[in-house]
Amino acid sequence: MSLPAVSRPRSRRVRLRRPAWLSPRVLRTEALSGLVVALALIPEAVSFSIIAGVDPRLGLFASFTMAVTIAFTGGRPAMISAATGAIALVLAPLVRGHGVEYLLAAVVLGGLIQVLLAVAGVARLMRFLPRSVMVGFVNALAILIFLAQLPYLIDVPWPVYPLLGVGLLVMIGLPKLTKAVPAPLVAIVALTTFTVAAGVAVPTVGDEGELPDSLPVLGIPAVPLTFETLTIIAPFALAMALVGLMESLMTAKLVDDLTDTHSDKTRESRGQGIANIVTGFLGGMGGCAMIGQTMINVKSGARTRASTFLAGVFLLVLVVALGEIVALIPMAALVGVMIMVAVGTFDWHSIHPKTLLRMPKSETTVMLATVAVTVATHNLAIGVIAGVLVAMVLFARRVAHLVSVDSVLDPDGTTRIYHVTGQLFFASSNDLVFQFDYAGDPPNVVIDLSDAHIWDASTVASLDAITTKYEARGTTVTITGMNPDSEQRHATLAGNLTSAH
């Protein structure tokens, strides 16, 4: 008797999905984009260090540590974080008054505050930013990027201008022929090769400041661990945390729109905090997302975290190992790259005459206010706050006029019914008191709120004032038709908003 054959289960070959960035084609794009970003970061980091009043090494180290750390901890792939002008402006007074070690301590504390804000859900506030503020933010950013290049074009040798012109032609024309290599990288290499070979004397990256020749070293800021130290650095750390998060979240939203993808804003907020903590302990001046360099990265085709990581690695290699070569890059080449970024970032459709005629004046006003304040203060955070405030005021005024009060007299002449329609809040309810005929109304008054909603204490206070005025004349007031939310708010606050006399 033969035994039945034992069937052996077929071995299933498990195929692990390879990350997108490991694809040779994708990795090549990410690497080239990261290299262009690294080259553009060098003069910016040096300039921001000068603004903050610190050694250029602090800005360059910050750009390296921020980019590498955020590549792992951030929530928006392909976004570049590094030392920024906004953070430099915030921390400059601290450096002047107390020195570099206090700056490093403030960076660590600022990073910790950002982590706490992320846990508290600050990223969810992004949904309250109107589109007009976002457009103003983008346009102001483009203007600031362009204005930042002007010092490199004033009182410079004449060869700078033809070099800039050639660089712009390369970056405009080359993408029409091929996109195999980023046009900004070709322009930088070509202009550097020409100026060195021809011996053309123009301002270079090396003229901006001394480049580091060693790696950053881990260390604890040398400040007294006292309450006095905390009172000194806390205001600067809080300002840095808020400005950094606002710029980073706005940049993340911009990249979301450009790439038609969604990013984790809470993770990005937390990641910014972690990156700043690491940066402070490694001797960097702190930073946040950089929109200019992010635009270079995204427009060069980068879409993954690899470009962000490689931008930081390339930056360190360039300034430490290849510093002598990098120092030869003419500033005209990098200025051309940033001018192209500014032109590409600006939302030209927003200022087209047809758009301006079609767009509500309130929307245009918000956009212009955001641009004006940002350009005037050179602070994107202040500009965004100003734009949001203008949007809130204009929205409140517009909604306030949508409230109406109609009345009918009961057939028996003893009751007048007032029908209130609209959203009742501080802007619309302040005039509500004057919509009633206190002296001429009959003994009974009904206020019907079936088509209205009570949003705040100001409205309840107005209803209390109306009731008081009627009761002073012996008139009975009945409020009806409130929805559950309005009824709960009214029941909680009615009669409790003024002190008894």
UniProtKB/TrEMBL annotation:
PROSITE patterns: STAS. CDD domains: STAS_SulP_like_sulfate_transporter. Gene3D superfamilies: STAS domain (3.30.750.24). One of its GO terms (cellular component) is membrane. The keyword Transmembrane applies. InterPro entries: Membrane-Transporter-like (IPR052706), SLC26A/SulP_dom (IPR011547), STAS_dom (IPR002645), STAS_dom_sf (IPR036513). It is found in: Membrane. Keywords: Membrane, Transmembrane, Transmembrane helix. SUPFAM superfamilies: SpoIIaa-like. It is a multi-pass membrane protein. This is Sodium-independent anion transporter. It comes from Prauserella muralis. The lineage of its organism: Bacteria, Bacillati, Actinomycetota, Actinomycetes, Pseudonocardiales.
